[in-house]
């Protein structure tokens, strides 16, 4: 029976029209919050100006009041201009934005009369200095918004020299604004990071699919042809056919393995190692993900691949290899074993004395860079086993599923 398989996709999918190729960029999710901050600062300035006009004749030092109002106008115009651009939203500017409103607020102590201060009449800045709280909350998040709100409220207590219900209400408003806007900023920042990661994953997946199509149309077909023809010819060609078949299987597994990066920025090492399996390489990994920082996972994957390459090069085409990954919670253990002829005694030492890097030195360098240890167990005619132990940090232990204690047998070994 003839089967027709029809694959439907969106227009442009075949051309590799991924997010990165479309030029998509991630917009900072806090932009609306910065616009709200600028709007609040302008409205607060207008409100303060109205009260300034009303209270001006009663000020003790009206000239200083004019200086304060001019400073508010200048600082509002400058910060609104800077905050409207991504390049202007620097930590330094926000720090200065905590200082300037407080200086102008403190100057009001000299502008108002003693009676105005005791009666709770508005200062020149009125609610304008609350915009320092919104700036800190949007830039740095919840805790900074809470802290800035507490500082602004504390300054009011210090200036007035007394406490009443209205001042407590001002304190609650300052702190609440800082916390709520900080929570919104944290949420927007997290959403932006997740969207950026999703777009990177989409681009990587699209590129992987494109490469898979190219490989399928070229390399895999050639390997399949070599495998089939070698079996027909027999003899030494059959061995080449077997090798071609193994490489075909490994390559198919590699191009069919999806991205293994997790939402936390770490990588599933178990998913990477599965791609190394073939007819002569058995891979055993936990059913759950074994997550490590991307650089650590890449280094351990390279160690396993290098060890298997060494097996194929020195142990002969018929040698079997086994890859075992164990997650012990506080450390990850990777073992690569083969049933080849083993490494003759003194061979590694001779290679080192002759200045040759060799696979042992290469693997050891990678493992030591991770703060791990490596043990080589080998004897002539008894195969070779590499055991790599890499410690995890506390955060990594919390993110990883515990696979339980391992019953480890006692065996002799030499530290490579």
From TrEMBL:
Keywords: Kinase, Membrane, Transferase, Transmembrane, Transmembrane helix, Two-component regulatory system
Start and end residues of each stretch annotated as Disordered: 1-24, 388-416
Domain of life, per lineage: Bacteria
TM stretches of this protein: 39-57, 63-81, 93-112, 132-155, 167-185
Biological processes annotated in GO: phosphorelay signal transduction system
GO molecular function terms noted in the UniProt entry: kinase activity
Protein name: Signal transduction histidine kinase
């Amino acid at each position: 029976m003839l089967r027709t398989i029809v694959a439907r996709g969106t227009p442009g999918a075949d051309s590799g029209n991924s997010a990165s190729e479309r030029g998509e960029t991630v917009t900072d999710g806090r932009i609306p919050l910065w616009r709200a901050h600028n709007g609040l600062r302008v409205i607060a300035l207008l409100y303060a100006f109205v009260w300034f006009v009303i209270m001006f004749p009663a000020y003790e030092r009206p000239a200083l009041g004019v200086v304060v109002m001019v400073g508010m106008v200048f600082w509002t115009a400058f910060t609104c201009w800077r905050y409207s651009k991504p390049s202007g939203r620097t930590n330094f500017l926000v720090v200065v934005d905590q200082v300037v409103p407080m200086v102008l607020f403190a100057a009001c102590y000299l502008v108002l009369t003693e009676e105005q201060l005791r009666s709770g009449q508005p200062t020149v800045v009125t609610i304008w200095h609350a915009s320092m709280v919104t700036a800190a909350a949007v830039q740095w998040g919840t805790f900074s918004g809470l802290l800035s709100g507490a500082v602004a409220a504390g300054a009011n207590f210090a200036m007035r020299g007394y406490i009443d219900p209205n001042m407590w209400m001002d304190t609650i408003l300052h702190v609440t604004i800082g916390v709520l806007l900080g929570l919104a900023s944290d949420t927007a920042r997290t959403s932006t990071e997740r969207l950026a990661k999703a777009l990177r994953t989409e681009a990587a997946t699209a590129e992987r699919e494109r490469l898979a199509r190219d490989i399928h149309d070229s390399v895999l077909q050639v390997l399949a042809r070599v495998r089939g023809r070698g079996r027909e010819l027999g003899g030494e060609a059959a061995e080449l056919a077997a090798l071609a078949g193994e490489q075909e299987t490994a390559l198919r597994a590699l191009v069919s393995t999806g991205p293994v990066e997790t939402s936390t920025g770490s990588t599933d090492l178990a998913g990477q190692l599965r791609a190394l399996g073939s007819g002569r390489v058995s891979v055993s990994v936990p059913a759950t993900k074994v997550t490590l920082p991307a650089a650590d996972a890449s280094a351990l994957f390279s160690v396993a691949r290098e060890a298997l390459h060494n097996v194929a090069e020195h142990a002969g085409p018929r040698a079997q290899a086994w890859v075992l990954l164990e997650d012990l919670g506080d450390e990850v253990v990777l073992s690569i074993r083969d049933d080849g002829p083993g490494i003759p005694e003194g061979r590694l030492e001779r290679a080192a004395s002759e200045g040759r890097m060799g696979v042992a030195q290469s693997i050891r360098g990678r493992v030591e860079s991770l703060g791990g240890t490596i043990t080589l167990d080998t004897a002539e005619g008894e195969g070779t086993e590499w055991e790599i132990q890499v410690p995890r940090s506390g955060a990594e232990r919390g993110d990883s599923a515990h696979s339980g204690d391992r019953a480890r047998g006692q065996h002799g070994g030499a530290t490579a």
